[in-house]
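Sanity check

After download, print the first record. It should look like this:
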Amino acid sequence: MSAPHQLISPLIDHLHSDGRLRVWSVVITIFGDAVQPHGGTVAMADLQAILGHMGVENGALRTAMSRLAKEGWVTRERQGRNSFYRLSPAGLKSFIPATEKIYRAQYAPTPQKLIFAVGPDVIGTAREQLNALLAGFGGMALRNGVALFADPSDHLLRQLQQADLLLIDADLDELPRWVAEKLELTEIEADYQALLNRFTPLGEQAEQLADLSPIDALCARILLIHEWRRLILKQPPLPAHLLPEDWPGAAAHHLVSGLYRQLIGPSEDWWSNGNGTAARTVLAERF
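Expected structure tokens:
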């Protein structure tokens, strides 16, 4: 196996820089970005080739796949000595709304309405159940029994009312500091800026990007989306005026979408399973 191109070597180094790599999380990125457009099934050998180029050992990959199967994210089918994986129905259920956020054409929409949902003052198991209920409804936890909802649907509002929660309209000019800290806005802002710093040099090398080998281009695309996915799914859905000044999210979206379009062509040349045209159509509709 050839060494990664010098353009993507720093990206691979960064992937391994934050302590123990969560290989299962990278696998989920690969499924969402590269496997689903190609019919949804991937051979273990293909996963080994992709992740091996990123410096992930086969043993770590096998452990990750066992974990994903045990937790119900993927299913496995054996054909002779070969193993093939696909997302389970439960995995697909989580994948679809996440995909809409990751690949939308515009940066995160600005919510028009915020609602505080407040539960009763309970302790122990009842408190844990209340917090789990609010999280299950998709609320942003602020403290025990209190969550913030952005643009809740009429159906969700009825569910919250039926759960005997106090609902308060939130017309805020700014967030209290403790709320911003709870939502980790400073950390997310710094991560957006780090993404810009890391991938901007790649975006300035259009000619070299076009000449990347298929496996280098595919790995660059996966590493790009892996970082973007983590951030865009973590960002709280807040109106723009409640975010810190000069929030870099939109600039990161612009960079990611532009780079992604440049990488589609060379990265898709890696696949040879006969459905490349259909996959390119799906990919071209992203961002």
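If your output differs, re-run the checksum step. Summary of this record's structure: The first helix runs from residue 9 to 15.
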